[in-house]
Design a protein that fits this description.
By secondary structure, the chain is α/β, with parallel strands linked by helices. It has a single domain, classed as Rossmann fold. The chain has eleven helices and six strands. It has a six-stranded mixed sheet with strand order 1-6-5-4-2-3, with helices on both faces. The radius of gyration is 17 Å and the shape is globular.
Length: 221
């Protein structure tokens, strides 16, 4: 079977020039990035490129094994669970399909709302419970919005009920976002990529996942 071209290879020449120029400008204006390895900087520069926010140079933190763990999950097509549909919708279907990665988001599942009403708590917590029951927490888990979802994942990790191969912790907001992220970075059972403090959200998570997918395409170790 002939090798399928990567998404990067399918870009037009004009599109690639614009992207390359933008990333070069990020590199030129970012200042000191000596705290990051080459693959780590590839992720951070994508966050900056997506948000036009240079604070991500410094706010973005990595477990030492995070990038290799993410690539090792992507290449065999491990599942990807994200906390909201906005993240799933922002991902390149062609990049996911190249590796057979199936992305799921359960916040909008009626069962999550029904359970939340019956048992208390939030839809995000029940979405994580549904994902665990479906075996969707065994690959990459990415949280960009709901701190309660991140804490629900962390509880399952602590209790030995889930062992994601990579946890991306980037909840955004003023209530418990920074605290939940700190908890994600404090645990060492699962490799993690996180943004310290209140900044995060769907766009940074999408950028982070696309950067990992691109590194996987390019054969990064």
């Amino acid at each position: 079977m002939a090798r399928q071209p990567s998404v990067t290879e399918q870009q037009t020449a004009s599109g690639r020039r614009i992207e390359d120029t933008s990333l070069a400008q990020v590199d030129a204006e970012a200042g000191d990035r000596s705290g990051y390895s080459g693959p780590q900087w590839a992720l951070v520069r994508r966050l900056i490129h997506t948000t036009a926010d240079f604070d991500f140079n410094g706010l973005t933190r990595f477990h030492p094994e995070a990038v290799p763990a993410g690539l090792a999950a992507i290449r065999p097509g491990a599942p990807l669970f994200v906390d909201v549909e906005m993240i799933r919708a922002g991902l390149s279907t062609r990049r996911l399909d190249r590796f057979g990665v199936r992305a799921t988001a359960r916040m909008g599942d009626p069962a999550a709302a029904e359970r939340a009403r019956a048992q208390g708590g939030t839809r995000a917590e029940q979405a994580v419970a549904l994902a665990a029951e479906a075996g969707e927490l065994d690959g990459i888990v990415a949280v960009g919005n709901a701190p309660t979802a991140l804490r629900a994942v962390l509880r399952r990790i602590e209790d030995g009920e889930a062992a994601p191969r990579l946890l991306i912790a980037m909840p955004v907001g003023f209530v418990a976002a920074a605290e939940a992220t700190d908890e994600a970075m404090a645990q060492q059972r699962v490799p993690w990529i996180a943004t310290a403090g209140r900044k995060g959200g769907s766009p940074p998570v999408v950028a982070c996942l696309h950067a990992l997918l691109r590194l996987a395409e390019e054969g990064e170790a």
